[in-house]
């Protein structure tokens, strides 16, 4: 699984994509809420009771999935860096792991671009 290009790309791009999609979804929900405030205050057939709580449940579920993808990405790339033979000769392994922890999402994307995609052509030589 560590050598699969699909999982490497998924765990590198996934956390950032989840943040972007989450923000877009949040702003759509917010604009829908603000745009229909009169219908919500005075009651309407288009917005039944519990409409806001139902949509907040979707947002909470999305956040839970985003947290799981981010945590999975963190674990995947820490293990990937630990097995990377290019990082065992110097202190780069420690630097990358600290970058993964403190810049979660962005650190994995940088590692994927520099260490995985950038070194793919050099493996055969």
Short synopsis of the structure:
The chain has 125 residues and is an all-alpha fold.
User: How does the overall form come out from the CA principal axes?
Assistant: rod-shaped
Average residue-wise pLDDT: 83
Note the run of SSEs as H and E.
HHHHH
Radius of gyration: 21 Å
Structural class: mainly alpha
Protein name: Cardiolipin synthase N-terminal domain-containing protein
Keywords: Membrane, Transmembrane, Transmembrane helix
What does this structure look like?
It comes from Muriicola marianensis. This is Cardiolipin synthase N-terminal domain-containing protein. Keywords: Membrane, Transmembrane, Transmembrane helix. The chain crosses the membrane at residues 12-34, 54-79, 91-114. The structure is a single chain. By secondary structure, the protein is an all-alpha fold. It has one domain (5-117). It is 74% helix and 0% strand. It is built from five helices and no strands. The protein has helices at 5-35, 37-42, 51-82, 92-102, 106-117. It starts with a helix and ends in an 8-residue tail after the last helix. The mean pLDDT is 83.
Write the layout of secondary structure elements.
Layout: H1 5-35, H2 37-42, H3 51-82, H4 92-102, H5 106-117
Helix pairs in contact: 1-3, 1-5, 3-4, 4-5
Keywords:
125 residues, mainly alpha, membrane, transmembrane, transmembrane helix
